[in-house]
Amino acid sequence: MLLCTGLPLFFMELVLGQYTSLGPNIIFPKMAPIFAGLGWGMIMVSALVSIYYNVILAWAFFYTFASFTSELPWTDCDNDFNTPECYLLQEDKVCKNMSMFYYNQTCLEPDAYCGLVNLVSLNASHCYDPNENDSLVVADGAVHRITPSEDYYRNRVLGVTGKTWEDMGGMQWELVGCLALAWLIVFACMVKGVKSSGKVVYFTALFPYVVLIILFGKGITLEGASLGIDYYFLKPDWSRLADTEVWSDAAIQIFYSLGSSYGGLITLASYNKFKNNCMSVRGRQTAVYSRRRNSSGSVHATAAG
């Protein structure tokens, strides 16, 4: 997907933007009036993605501030915001060793555990519905339980447990503040237009690799890391390549990673010099944002959409 779809589209959008010095909402109507909606569609998609990505950034800020504690709040079920469904894998293993099940921070007998969802215990691993024949249910999946990290996200960060459209609860002011901070940073990056955003790219493009290297180093030292390495590098499941969903997921990831078909590449490339080599490594850095003069000496105004 990267070689056959992503990179060709990436290069084509750089060429279109650099050659015309126009944004997507202007370039497509000039190329073919029937495609006028394509450029505006790109702008709308970019606007929507920017809005919900900033919400994700707000969550990231929330977690960043919450991590400045001696013990991370999403590692156990002992907090005020935790629900009875919160369970720890290690505690669950302890209960299973006693032929019991972990729920609400205690070990329950199979009868009591299955009874939480109006089922009857058959044995140490299965429940069944007495009102239906052949209705065996694996006990582990019979009762809805969530990990501490999911419980923290749903109940502490979002506060959505038990909420309905009729009663959506109050405002999460901490998230409001984090979202305001996210938009403030975006404003600071764009306050001087494309020139300042070009400098920001040097950080935003390189910093993720630093984080990925750190996470990789941490990940390979965790218990069970060898299983993932063995799966991906030594025993890959090549039959998955016949699954169309795998290719669909790959295409989605490539388009997100490269930013193709969102209009941003065309807009940024429109600020390149007309004769910039956008195939070279330096040329692909669309941070060469300066107005160029045309052959008559007048300033060539660029339209970024």
UniProtKB/TrEMBL annotation:
Can you provide one Gene Ontology molecular function annotated for this UniProt record?
metal ion binding
Q: Which residues form the signal peptide?
A: 1-17
Superkingdom of the organism of origin: Eukaryota
Chain segments annotated as transmembrane: 41-62, 173-194, 200-217
Q: Check the record and name the SUPFAM superfamilies matching this protein.
A: SNF-like
Q: Which PROSITE patterns match?
A: NA_NEUROTRAN_SYMP_3 (PS50267)
The subcellular localization recorded is: Membrane
Q: List the disulfide bonds.
A: 77-86
According to the UniProt record, one GO cellular component term is: plasma membrane
**Transcription as a keyword?**
no
Q: Which InterPro entries match?
A: Na/ntran_symport, SNS_sf
Q: What membrane topology term does the record carry? A: Multi-pass membrane protein
Q: Does the keyword DNA repair apply?
A: no
Binding-site list for Na(+): 257
Family affiliation? Belongs to the sodium:neurotransmitter symporter (SNF) (TC 2.A.22) family.
What's the protein name? Uncharacterized protein
Q: Report the source organism.
A: Scylla paramamosain (Mud crab)
